Amino acid sequence: MINKINAIRGMNDLLPSDSAVWLSLERTIFDLFTSYGFKNIRTPVVEKTDTFHRAIGKATDIVEKEMYTWADSNGDLLSLRPENTAGVVRCMIEHNLPREGIQKVFYQGAMFRHERPQKGRYRQFHQIGAEVFGADNAKIDAELIAITHSLWQKIGLKNVQLEINTLGSAEARANYRKVLVKYFTEHKNQLDGDSIRRLSTNPLRILDSKNEGLQALIESAPKLMSHLDAESAQHFDEFKAYLDCLDIPYIINTRLVRGLDYYNRTVFEWTTTDLGAQGTICAGGRYDGLVEQMGGKNCPAVGFALGLERLTLLIQAQGLSIGERKKSIYMVALGYEAQRKSMQIAKQLHQALPQVILYNDIGMGSFKSQFKKANKVDADFAIILGEEEINNNQVAIKPLKGQGEQKNMNLEEAIHYFKG
Ligand code: ATP
Ligand code: MG
Predict the structure, then answer these.
(1) Is 279:72 a contact under the CB 8 Å cutoff?
(2) Residues 92-139: pLDDT tens digits?
(3) Does ligand 1 have an atom closer than 6 angstroms to the CB of 151?
(4) Residue 258 belongs to some domain of the structure
């Protein structure tokens, strides 16, 4: 026997039995973005490695450890996208889109990071995200929060918490960096290897450490909040005031620094305690310097990404049912004449009843075996086409869930019956 080939570790198949939640979730989110005036954007899954180096920063976990990178046959270094902000910014600059005014875009798709696979953490995972270019006021930061908040309400999600912080201006961060390096250097003997390395490459990331033994030290570290520039402090106050007027509760987490270098001012995460260690379902922030840093004209920007795997895990964990159940019909037909007729009728029914799920039998077995299949797909009704129905130019409709008698009628009446 020939050996079978399995999928790559950490890269999952979405099976038909699990896909309904995904489809419904994606539709809900796309409709929501559209209703807020966002347009869809699609960029390639592969970009030049430089795109990610410049955007995400070389001293980050993603670039240091998690990227899938290879040399093309002509020697160019290419990478699978580990996130999509870098690609969207590259695209904005390449097509000069911010010149046309404020750009509100959303994307969806697979991202790739070479991490240790575990619940809620995979090597191929899917994000839906939004980015806004050309607006620097906190109103748009708050609108992004309002969108995500109304998404949680739409799907009935519970136990999600908004954490916010501000990273200030690049200058304020540079000053704070010195204060932080001084503090951690004084306590160097308590740091772990990762943190000692970050002390010289990316000291703010030490605040993000998950090492239990470091928590007390991090807790007592100086806060960026007390080294903020006046404009960023005001921006943060405005952001909070918008959230207050929207009645969206939040907590200020001064340790929230995010794992990518491009952020400034507003950063936020939606977290839950229902998913164990992988508790962040959605994260984002402002990145006013990135467009210029990638070779474009100075352009403020803000965005977020949500992890669909984690969101679906949370929906499951909370036992939420997503998406309405649609009426379904199974078409049973016996004999070649009836099979052809069923094809014609199915085509007409699909046109007249786009909301209904219509299965046209393809097992070609006996009536009994066709009804078995109808039960297997949990159909609500059967439409039966036998010799008698064909001769009378009618169909027989049989409710399969116990409600009512089998009835014969013509196609127009049948359409009316199912519309009701
Ligand atoms: P974490 O701290 O959990 O590693 P992150 O800061 O690396 O998250 P982001 O880059 O901000 O994550 O990505 C946004 C969202 O994408 C996360 O909040 C999460 O929901 C999801 N996500 C990130 N990495 C993975 C992964 N490896 N597998 C599944 N989902 C992920
Ligand atoms: Mg990560």
Answers:
(1) no
(2) 999 999 999 999 999 999 999 999 999 999 999 999 999 999 999 999
(3) no
(4) yes
